[in-house]
Design brief:
Length: about 240
């Protein structure tokens, strides 16, 4: 029997991915605490749903973990290395390489095709156009969008466009995908299907997922749920 040298899920699916951790995260807006001391660990490849009432600090937590928003105190660690103290150039490089993002409405570039949109982070990272487009097409295919690679966002349904955004978030093989209400603009059925596509694709890629949602049904499709209230993790919450 031949020895299998490559993982069919892709070269990085079995590579060691770094864990992402927040320690004592505090974020204030004026006198208001958006985060009042949050500790969280996200293991490599793990999917975590962050739920909680509106204004509880979910988006703030996601932005702090992703290095978009600076903390007032506490630390963010990726693979045990502090990333919250990096300068803006290093942080934006980290966001381009280690992280992928899916927002409520995909923020696709209207003038670009699906494959060009999905290839953007790779192109920004310096990959050749043909390389970037072929990786993008591979992810579009995995997300059920074969045949729609040349369409522009205006020629796709909302769910399809969001799957292009998922392909874009995954094409550069990030360690962590951050998704803030990624299905918020979709009807519940399309939302569930899109969520399933996101989790399956991230699983294939070996990427962890940090999903912010206030949809408890959607959160239930993710193995681990963390509840946040008034800027703190609610340890008593069961879901
Ligand atoms: N730029 C800002 N300036 C001032 N206050 C802010 C800012 N962003 C967030 N806040 C406040 O911080 C708190 C947490 O906000 P955050 O956006 O993290 O909540 P959320 O849980 O994501 O809510 P939602 O479910 O409505 O999106 C809220 O009280 C909010 O008003
Ligand atoms: Mg929010």
């Amino acid at each position: 029997m031949p020895t299998q040298t490559t993982d069919p899920r892709g070269p990085l699916a079995t590579a060691t991915r770094p864990a992402l951790s927040g320690r004592g995260l505090v974020k204030r807006y004026g006198t208001q605490h958006a985060l009042a001391g949050v500790d969280i660990d996200i293991q490599p490849g793990e999917a975590v749903a962050i739920v909680g009432p509106s204004g509880s600090g979910k988006t703030s937590l996601l932005h702090v973990l992703a290095g978009i928003l600076p903390v007032d105190s506490g630390a963010v660690l990726l693979g045990g290395t502090r990333i919250d103290q990096l300068g803006e150039t290093k942080r934006s490089e980290l966001r381009r390489t280690e992280f992928g993002f899916v927002f409520q409405s995909g923020f696709l570039v209207a003038e670009l095709t699906a494959e060009e949109n999905a290839a953007l982070p790779l192109l920004l990272g310096g990959r050749s156009r043909s390389d970037a487009l072929s990786a993008a097409r591979e992810w579009l295919g995995r997300l059920g969008l074969s045949g729609k690679e040349k369409r522009r966002p205006g020629e796709l349904s909302g769910g399809e466009a969001q799957r292009v955004a998922i392909a874009r978030a995954l094409a550069h093989r990030p360690s962590v995908i951050f998704a803030d209400e990624p299905t918020g603009a979709l009807d519940s059925r399309t939302g569930r299907a899109t969520m399933a596509a996101l989790l399956a694709a991230a699983g294939e890629s070996g990427a962890a997922v940090v999903l912010v949602t206030h949809d408890r049904d959607l959160a239930a499709s993710v193995p681990r749920t963390v509840t946040i209230r008034d800027g703190r993790i609610d340890a008593g919450a069961t879901a």
